[in-house]
Design a protein that fits this description.
The complex is a heterodimer of chains A (391) and B (136).
Chain A (H helix, E strand, L loop, with lengths): L12 E8 L10 H16 L8 E6 L7 H8 L6 E6 L4 H15 L4 E9 L27 H16 L3 H15 L13 H6 L2 E4 L1 E2 L8 E10 H4 L7 E9 L21 H13 L8 E3 L7 H8 L8 H6 L16 H5 L5 H11 L13 E6 L5 E8 L2
Parallel strand pairs in A: 2-3, 2-4, 9-10
Antiparallel strand pairs in A: 1-7, 1-8, 4-7, 5-6, 8-11, 10-11
Helix pairs in contact in A: 1-2, 8-9
Chain B lengths: L17 H8 L4 E5 L21 E5 L3 E10 L13 E8 L4 E7 L10 E9 L2 E8 L2
Parallel strand pairs in B: 5-7
Antiparallel strand pairs in B: 1-2, 3-4, 3-6, 4-5, 6-7
The chains are: A alpha/beta (391), B mainly beta (136).
Chain lengths: 391, 136
């Protein structure tokens, strides 16, 4: 992006409809059926018909989902003028919404569905699967073969560099459990005290089970359209005011090429920071609440610090001091996060942000909901959005 | 290279990495070093990831360094490593530059930031692999 120039789709596009299937450990349903059900729900939510849809954007890993084409068939929708199938994981949701918004603003499409669907628990279990890549030959043979291990490496370095403690990690989890208790959709709704957290065994030190997201079967979807069009939809627009992607230098060859990344105490959000705030013409102080991609607990403080939502080295105090609670200065992960709601690869982080902006957060509705930060990334590359209410 | 399934935890070299594995099997640990920008990089790849140059060589290393980060796996995700738990993986910044990752051989309780270690090669499934042990 040219410095100083704001991408044209920002402030002129919006999200309206939101749809979910239930999240479960065994959906008993094909991924195709999940995808179509979530997309139908999103259309019903904002009062559109399948024939109003002319674009679909989705993402998947290792063929764990279906193409947009299959959803178009399932919806019985008409001719698509825009269709994107990304091979990405948690970096994708905010970027997928952005692609939809760019297509809308450029006139390529009018109403675009963005969805993620997977049988992530009963089917392909990405989170605990060793899958081949350019650099896997240097990890697998020594027993360094799953995602939790890669991020645990960064967690350790983050804790060394910033003084973030195990007790602080426990607070991240405990706060999100309290939110999840207010969310019928969440798969894990049991409160967890910091003491009980600290008493639980390590899976991959520094991570315990409660630090890891819950693999889930399910799907969710949103409808992206122009702000003008959005004003005629049944749900109020969540306006896309800021958006940024980064693949910083040092990102390496693939999702787990840790070797080239210089500073493991910082994830991509540190590098995304300037681009994101500049795109939105906003600062961290303008944000009322945040939905932070959290495949693992540590990503929350890393991202908050990276984007300047709290001082570097200040996330522990910020979180233990209650600032991320519903009553705090910056409610974070109001659905309980991926840690508690379940892992729809961060698409459900975006949907929660939209529900909150629209005032549909129910018992967990934040009191001030004018502006939200949403993130999609844990490690090297990723994306983020700033959403606001319509004026 | 192998008849085993793609997900088996064994080495699957490619055209950019074969030479490195062959050197390791001879007992030689190498760290690709760029002649254009002097970057020491890993894994082996066709182009220096700092400057894009193809003019690099497999640089020698003393193999000594300091622990940059580490994890201790208590629950194995692949059955292959079920008997190994708990085991540690260390990321090591070499004293002569470059960052490598290997199995840790030593007391898990002594792991700490900047722990001095040295490279040690070990064998598993008839393959030579990289590990590190505590110095002293």
């Amino acid at each position: 992006m040219t410095a100083g120039r704001r991408p044209s789709f920002l402030g002129r596009t919006a999200i309206t409809g939101v749809g979910y299937t239930p999240l479960s450990r065994d959906s008993g349903m094909s991924v195709h059926a999940l995808a179509v059900n979530a997309c139908r729900a999103a259309l019903d939510d904002c009062g559109l018909l399948p024939t109003d849809i002319d674009g679909i954007v989705t993402y998947s890993l290792l063929n764990d989902s279906v193409y947009g084409q299959a959803v178009a068939a399932g919806l019985g929708s008409s001719d698509l003028s825009y269709s994107v199938d990304l091979s990405l994981g948690g970096q994708a949701p905010c970027a997928a919404v952005t692609m939809a918004a760019m297509a809308v603003d450029s006139g390529v499409a009018r109403n675009v569905l963005v969805f993620r669907a997977l049988n992530g628990r009963s089917g392909k279990r990405i989170g605990t699967t060793a899958y081949e890549s350019l650099t896997s030959q240097f990890r697998y043979p020594i027993g360094f073969d799953v995602y939790s291990q890669y991020i645990a490496m960064w967690a350790r370095r983050f804790m060394i560099e910033t003084g973030f403690t195990f007790s602080d990690l426990g607070h991240v989890v405990s706060v999100q459990r309290d939110y999840a208790a207010l969310n019928d959709r969440a798969m894990q709704r049991k409160p967890l005290s910091v003491d009980d957290y600290l008493d639980s065994p390590f899976i991959v030190d520094p991570f315990r089970k409660a630090d890891c997201t819950i693999e889930a079967d399910g799907a969710c979807a949103v409808v992206v359209t122009s702000l003008d069009e959005a004003r005629s939809h049944r749900q109020r627009p969540a306006v896309i005011q800021g958006s940024a992607w980064t693949t910083p230098k040092g990102s390496g060859l693939d999702h787990a090429d840790l070797f080239s990344w210089p500073d493991w105490s910082k994830n991509c959000h540190h590098y995304l920071r300037e681009r994101l705030w500049q795109s939105a013409r906003a600062t961290p102080r303008d944000v009322d609440f945040a939905e932070i991609y959290d495949c693992f607990s540590i990503v929350v403080p890393m991202t908050l610090e990276g984007l300047g939502m709290c001082p570097t080295g200040g996330a522990g105090e910020f979180i233990t001091g209650g600032q991320t609670r519903l009553t705090g200065s910056l409610p974070v992960n109001t659905h309980g996060g991926l840690l508690c709601e379940g892992y729809l690869h961060g698409m459900n982080t975006v949907t929660e942000a939209v529900l909150q902006i629209q005032g549909r957060g129910g018992a967990r509705q934040v009191s001030k909901n004018d502006c939200c930060l949403v993130t999609s990334a844990a490690m090297m590359d990723g994306s983020a959005l700033i959403l606001t209410k319509d004026e | 290279m192998s008849q085993a399934s793609a997900s088996a935890p064994i080495v699957h070299p490619n055209l950019d990495t074969q030479w490195w594995w062959e050197a390791l099997a001879r007992g030689e640990l190498l760290v690709p070093t760029c002649r254009s920008c002097d970057n020491r990089f890993f894994p082996p790849q066709a182009f220096c990831p700092n400057c894009g140059s193809q003019d690099w060589h497999g640089g020698a290393t003393s193999g000594t360094g300091k622990v940059y980060s580490w994890i201790v796996t208590h629950r194995a995700f692949s059955p292959e490593f079920g008997d190994d738990v708990p085991y540690a993986i260390v990321a090591v910044d070499l004293d002569d530059r470059g960052r490598l990752i290997g199995r840790y051989f030593g007391d898990l309780n002594s792991l700490r930031d900047a722990l001095p270690v040295r490279a040690t090669l070990f064998s598993r499934n008839d393959e030579t692999l990289l590990g590190f042990e505590e110095i002293g």
